[in-house]
TrEMBL record:
Homodimer. The lineage of its organism: Bacteria, Bacillati, Bacillota, Bacilli, Bacillales. Belongs to the SLC41A transporter family. Residues 142-204, 206-262 form the CBS domain. This is Magnesium transporter MgtE. It comes from the Bacteria. It is found in: Cell membrane. The chain crosses the membrane at residues 290-309, 315-341, 362-384, 390-417. It comes from Evansella tamaricis.
Amino acid sequence: MNRLNEEAREKYFETIFKSLKNKDKNVFLEYFLELHPTDQVELFQQLYKDKRPMFYEYLTPEQFAEIFQGLEVEEQKEVVKELDKTYAASMFNHMQADDIADFLGEIHEPHAKDILNAMEKEEADEVIELMSYPEESAGALMTKEFISIKATDTASEVMDHLRKKGPEAETVYYLYVVDAKDKLVGVVSLRDLIVAQLNETIENLMSTQVVSVESHTDQEEVARLIKDYDLLAAPVVTSTNELIGIVTVDDVMDVLEEEATEDFDDFTAAKGATDVNITSFSAAKRRSPWIIMLMFFGLITAGVIGTFEETLEEIVILAVFIPLIMDSAGNTGTQSLAVMVRSLATGSFERRGLLHTIKREFGTGLMLGLICAVVLMIVIPFLYPEGGVILAGIVGVSIFLTLSVATIIGAVVPVAINKLKLDPAIASGPFITTVNDILGLLIYFSIATALLDYLPR
């Protein structure tokens, strides 16, 4: 099944829709089953609801299972309501255990129990086991459909075993070698197996240097490990090294997308509200705590300006540069925040260390501040000649100090939060921006007040 180009896919879709309209099951199956699974999911999503019953009638539960796995959770919830209970139970029996666990974790418990009770006991037990692990852990992410072999097996025996069990496995590119107690002792790649002599034992083919993760390892750490070692899958073991599952690269891609979305939510102070499928009320409810908190921080900013009210009354032109100071401080701090959070996420922070990263960001802040200060000290006397060189100097020095301090705050705050075992991304852009606004204004007005007597009225 190859992924079709846009033009070919549209023609295929048109033929399939026409076969549904004409109730031609043979033509439907001939064309639909030739599609790539991704295209099958896309076609199903384009169906009108009144055509779906025919879709379920023509496809077996096993065939529809792959389509169901490709749908979003909200779509899956709607589809389950449309399925016959027997059909649904059979479909779940043919799905990967980790995909079922993900779906059941998103629906109400009584309904989840009904689905598990309708499934075959062996399949249901695997799902229950996966759901018992902590959320966002390797155990919750892993699949139970993997191939394990013995060190005493020959290459020929393993190939025969693959022909029987391979279709049920999530991946066959890695074959994990276990001892009599199911403890992980080695790994053999499919390539090594294919090129080996048929009578060669696995013990002579396997590598004993196996990269594995424990079941309670955080999913982000699992994703980083698979990326660093360029793996297609990583075995999951217990504390006693018993092999219990594998995490595949496709699941890791979902984790990376999920983690990136979470970080983006935190950066924008809109945690959980970036999903366009939720209602306006839900989005407002999730955003409001941050907005209210930042509103109170805004009152602090207003208080800082109020403290220097006399300075502003004497030299009104100082008010012109308040947005410039605030925006520059906030933007620079947010950039440093993004650099530090990314460094923590990729592990480069641990390799380089705190001092190196902070020195780099502080050096960046100094250079940015110097560049901006020079530009402003040249431009301001032309734009505001009534302020003179002194005004240009006040704004220039203020922006230099503000940007230098803003980079330090943007770099240090996420590190401090990370030390508290929290996600550093919660040091969100709006939060860092507001803090730097306050400090920037304090620096600006403090310098202006100190040099007030030298400013022309």
